[in-house]
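Sample 1 of the test manifest.
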Amino acid sequence: MPVPRTPLSRAPRHLHLAVALDGAGWHPAAWREPAARPAELFTARYWSDLVAEAEYGLLDFVTFEDSLSLQSTHPDGPDGRTDRVRGRLDAVLIAARVAPRTRYIGLVPTALVSHTEPFHLSKAVATLDHVSEGRAGVRVRVSARADEYAHVGRREQPTTAEELFAEARDYVEVLKRLWDSWEDDAEIRDVATGRFVDRAKLHYIDFEGAQFSVKGPSITPRPPQGLPPVAALAHDTLPYELVASCAEIGFVTPRDADDARAIVARVNDARSAAGRPDESVHVFGDLLVYLDDAPGAAADRRARLDERAGAAYVSDAPVFTGTPAELADLLQEGQEAGLTGFRLRPAALPHDLERITRGLVPELRRRGVFRTAYGADTLRGLLGLSRPASRYAAA
Amino acid sequence: MSKPVKQIHLAAHFPGVNNSTVWSDPAAGSQIDFSSFTHFARTAERAKFDFLFLAEGLRLREQNGEIYDLDVVGRPDTFTVLSALAAVTDKLGLAGTVNSTFNEPYEVARQFASLDHLSAGRAAWNVVTSWDEFTGQNFRRGGYLAQEDRYERAKQFLAAAWELFDSWHGDEIVADKESGLFLAHPDPGGFDHHVREFDISGHFNVPRGPQGRPVVFQAGDSDEGREFAASAADAIFTRHGTFESGQAFYADVKGRLARYGRSPDELKILPGVTFALGDTDADAREKAALIRRQQVSGQTAIRLLEQLWNRDLSSYDPDGPLPAEDPVPGENTVARGRASVRMHRDPLATAARWRGIAQAKNLSIRDLIIEVTGRQTFIGSPATVATALNDFVQADASDGFILTPHLTPGGLDEFADTVVPLLQERGVFRTEYEGDTLRDHLGLRKPAPAPAHAPATVSVSAGRTAAH
């Protein structure tokens, strides 16, 4: 396969790279691999080590999966299986726990917007941004699982996907209004007048939506990034529109380069329709990866994992099996199709993560399409997004 | 036979959004930068404190219909900052106040269980309730909870969380690569909880934490609150910082434990207190007076007076006499989002008392407010304060203290450097941590998975009855 070349007149664009962390890896038998640490999944050290490895590879960010139910192969409840990882820790708290131990890498926990309070999540992500000095993001997820509704018990399951996604849009709007509700210079500490804040720079957000209303302002001062980036996984029109209308990063799952081109066009059209400027939304390709240096080794490992799991692992994302050079080819192809980056889901941890940081990253660097040092110390900075002023600030 | 010497428990309250936190001092640092939290937590850990404590408020305070701007404004999310602090400390307990009105049990239980895992057994939960619509305007739930239902919801919330914490027994995860068995049981975390406030069932998804359950604090002072604490809490954060009221409270609450099959050691009583230190007692008194003037600016004095008077007093001179008019009785409409106004139970009587003090001592508004509000609990040289703290505990006025310094982030440094070594010399405070978890520090047993006493059993069944 020919490697697409960029015109000589301009330097090749760097691509953005993230890793999706979940349990012992995305393959259900990953926890049985020789390097796996299944007994440590609920310890801080396990997560700190993984994120440190991702930071060693100069990746843009890591995401942390989350749910309000046990992992399951059934769509609506537990599956009773004893041969797979079950149980997980709160993703925001994992991100906060690793923040002081890292310095540059972005930290993007998953949050379920259908069950949580936007006021709580807004201040949690703002605080994650404070404790990480500008490296927080959040990936929002809607919930359609019956068990999650029964666990929370607050409401009936919405009947349509439209309702779920409309609520998600409202939710993200509230997150952002609350982050903006403190102007950057609201804290004045003016001893002469005895005032700690200038209350003219604190704003009620007065949000009224179909599912909730929120008064504001936030109790937490504006995050260092202003607005921490919001991300969402998107497989179809409704989530594409969610990404286009209010997220900074969409994770999409194209079958091939043509599909990628089509999805990017759909997201960009929706973004324009939403009145948002060019290059304000990243479209990342999601890819499940089995990565090994020796030709054929990744395929062998995948076969072994599938055999141990008793069935081939089927992912919602495209699956890559091969060497770092082959993966670099695929990523560049996707980049040519308009994807600005990739979120790689390691089949097994730490194995596939280390092949990304120690195999793929050097390969991309040789090709001049990946950073050789962190060039910014905020997540927005790494993503090439400027720091926005508060929407409430007087022009 | 002489009474055994008690060991003192010490905790540090991160300075909050009351006027007791002096932000105008040149030494005052950021209230939100993580470096301030790190400094404060590391000082507490260096001094071998039991835990760090964070308060919570879910709406910015208002007075006269405007955001209150004279005190510190703004604070972090409790869970998030405590989890980050777990990364910069090793032994210090991490206690957070989390409201039971504007949350759901499944989410809060998994946040505390997650924090307990991520801190290797150092999490504590100060359960509070709130009912005001003012705060509710920030939440899906809204604020409509009748005052008499507050404790009922808190009890039911805690009982639900308790069931979730106990839904994993601690022996489920085997993670045996060879046999391919990750779980010992196919159905971990099952729960089924149907009461008036919470109708939930399914499976909890966080395995049992290192402490079994996080340490539970209760902070109320009413008869109901005391009973609630006696039935279900591991520690009480009280406001009884004086010797006599401390002893009375201590005897009362400890006396209630037997009813729940608990021994007096199973509930620690920790008043929130303040301090001012100096090289000599005279120096300390001078410093205490200076801090009080910093805490009560002229503007602050007027605002605090308004909270009792329940009316706009902005036209008054803080250096002049008290208003001739009386407080407006009834619901406090001037100050919102503030717990302290509820302490003025009889505003007219309090105003009369304050007038008497002002006349007798010829005090201006500002002088009076300095006199009648929030004087430091312990004032003196390190030796004087160490003696007073120890006497307080040995005489059963408390089991220890939650100290609130007036400065962020360095307000604990002097106490750690001067008072703690004296307590250690006297053998009443640890010189090294003896255990790893907060339960270890507080001398509390790790609960067995099946609780010997389900909390608030009575009210849970009452809730069931009410639901039918």
